[in-house]
Amino acid sequence: MSAPTPSERAYVPFVSVDNMMQLIHRIGIEDMLSGIAAYIEEDFKRWELFDKTPRVAAHSTEGVIELMPTSDGTTYGFKYVNGHPKNTKEGLQTVTAFGLLADVYTGYPVLLTEMTVLTALRTAATSAVVAKHLAPANARTMAMIGNGAQSEFQALAMKVICGIDTLRLYDTDPAATAKLMRNLQGLGMTLHPCKTAEEAVQGAQIITTCTADKQNATVLNDNMVGAGIHINAIGGDCPGKTELQADILKRADVFVEYPPQTRIEGEIQNMPEDFPVTEMWKVIRGDEKGRTSDCQITLFDGVGFATEDFSALRYIRDQLEGTGLFQQLDLLADPDDPRDLFGMVLRATPVADQA
Amino acid sequence: MSAPTPSERAYVPFVSVDNMMQLIHRIGIEDMLSGIAAYIEEDFKRWELFDKTPRVAAHSTEGVIELMPTSDGTTYGFKYVNGHPKNTKEGLQTVTAFGLLADVYTGYPVLLTEMTVLTALRTAATSAVVAKHLAPANARTMAMIGNGAQSEFQALAMKVICGIDTLRLYDTDPAATAKLMRNLQGLGMTLHPCKTAEEAVQGAQIITTCTADKQNATVLNDNMVGAGIHINAIGGDCPGKTELQADILKRADVFVEYPPQTRIEGEIQNMPEDFPVTEMWKVIRGDEKGRTSDCQITLFDGVGFATEDFSALRYIRDQLEGTGLFQQLDLLADPDDPRDLFGMVLRATPVADQA
C-alpha cells in the first residue's frame, strides 16, 4: 500500500524568513512599506468590524511571550511574538514572531509566515500612517532615539509616507548609530549622529523613541520637548517598560491604538485610568480631530495592535501569488472521509516499508 | 554577494502530518497513547506550576477558532484549534490543529507540529487517564456513543490504559459505526454494533459520549444511566454544545479539568455557577477522592485543556531525536548582530541574482 498523498486542503502556504526577504527585494522595501501602510489604514477605517482583545501575555522574569488574535468576521489572524530585551546581549533577537491567517468559515489556516521581519515593517508603517495624520504639515526632520533593530524601518517609512528627509540619531551605544548610518547610506536621507538625546531633538518636528529596556527608563524629559512636536513613542510596550517622563504626557494630546491594551502596556500605564486619549482609528476615519494647532504636542503611544499584524498578513497573502516565494506545508490532516482520521493514520505506510 | 545562510537558531523543527503518522507507526499507536498518558499524568501532578487561562476563542456562526496557551515557567506551549461541526458535510475535518513549544528564557520557538492527529491522541489519553482513576475497578465494557473521528482513539486508549476489551457502538449514522468496526478489526477488542443508544449502554461500565453537534443535543438520558457507571463526556466542549440531560449531572459526581473553562464550555454550562465539581489534578495527585463507592456515578466533563496539549507536545519533542521525522523550518530571523535586522534584509541577495 502506498502512503496517501495529502490533499490540496492539507497544505498551508508558508513564507520563510528567506522568502520574506526575497519578497521585500522583489517589491522594493519602500513600496512594501507604502503597501502595508495602505492596508493598515484600510483596516483602521473598518475598525468596528474587528474582534478585539488585549493580547494574551505570558510574562517571565526574562521577557514575555504573547499571542495577538483578531478577526474581521471573514478572516482570522494571529501573531506569536516574544519580547526579551536581554536577548540582544546573548546574540539573539529581542523580538521574534510568526503569524497565521485562517478562513473563519472553515477554521482552516490559509497562510503561515515568519513575522520577525514583517513586524518591523508593520510597526514602521503604523508609525508613519499615524504621523501622516498628526505630525506638523511640513515635518522634514526626525530625531531617532534608540538605533536598534527597528530604527531603519521607522526611518524609511517616515521618509516614504511623511516626507522626512533628515534624521538626527542618538543611542546610548554609538555602535548602534554607526550601524544605522551604514545601513541607510545612499537611501536618500541626511544623517546626523548626535552625542546626546538633547542634541538629537534639536530642530526635529518628529521625535521617535524606540529603545528596548524593560525598565521605566526616561529617554525623553519634559524640557526636551518644544511646542509643535509629534512624538512617536514606540519603545514603551509592556508593563514596567516606558520611555517618557510623565510630565510630557500631561502637556501632550495622546493618541492610541486600542485603549484597553495601551492602558496596560503603553506610556499611559503610569497615568490615572481615566487619562484622556484619542483612538487613532477615529482620527484616520475623520470622526475625531488629529492635530489642531501648530504649537500642539501630539503623542502616539504606540504598542502595536493585532489588527496591524492582520493588515500585514493580508498584504503578504495578496502579494504571494505567482512569486513562488513560499513552500507548501503539510500542516493539516485531511482524510478523504473527514470522520476517518484513524483510518488515514492506519493506512500511512511507514517510510521504511516504501522501499 | 551570496545570500546569508540562516544560523542554527533560525530553524524550528516542524513535524508534518505525514511525519506524525510515521512517528505513530514507528512507536506503535498503543505505546504512543501510553506515553502521552504518562506525560499528561505527570503534568497534572505539577498543576500548580502552570500558567492557566481559559482558551481565547473567536466564535462565528459556523464554528470557533481557539488559542490555548500555557507555560510551566521553563517551556511555553500553545495550540491553534478550530471546531466547525458543519465541516464534515463539506468533506473537511471538524477539528484541525497545530501547536508550538517555545523556550521561556529566550522566547524562541523550539517545536512546531501538526496537532490534528496529535489532539486525537491526547484527548483519548486524557480520557483514559481520568477513567483509570474514576471507572469501576473491573470495567471491561465501554459504550461508545458517537463513532466519528475521535472514537477509535478513545477505544484504543481505554483498552491500553484501563483494560477495556468490549465496545458497544452507536451512532445516528450507521456508516460511522461500520467505519469504526473496520478500523478496529484485529486490534483485540470485541465490537457490538447497536441500533440505539439505549441498547449501547446495556452492560457497560464506562459510557463515552463523543458527538459533534453544536446544539444542546441530548444523547444520554437520565434513565439510561444506572448505578456504578463512569461517564466520559467529551463531546460537549463549547457554549451551546452539550450532550447530557441535566438530571444526570445532579445524580453524578462531576470531575473537570479547569473549572473556569469547563463552566463556560462543558456539560456544567447548564448548571448554576456554584455547581460542585472536583478538579482532576487533585484526584490524580491523591489530594481528593475519586470513586468512593461501587454505586456512585462518576462523570468526567472533559473539554480539553491547554496543559494536555503541552504534555503531548513535550512527548513529541522528546521522541523526535534521531528519527529524522521532522523538517527544519526557516521561521526565525536571526541576524549575526541582533540589532541589525535591516542589514540582514539588505544583504539577502534576490534569488534571480544568484544564477
UniProtKB/TrEMBL annotation, chains A, B:
The record's annotation in SUPFAM superfamilies points to: NAD(P)-binding Rossmann-fold domains
- Please report the name of this protein according to its UniProt entry: Ornithine cyclodeaminase
What organism, scientifically named, is this protein from? Halocynthiibacter styelae
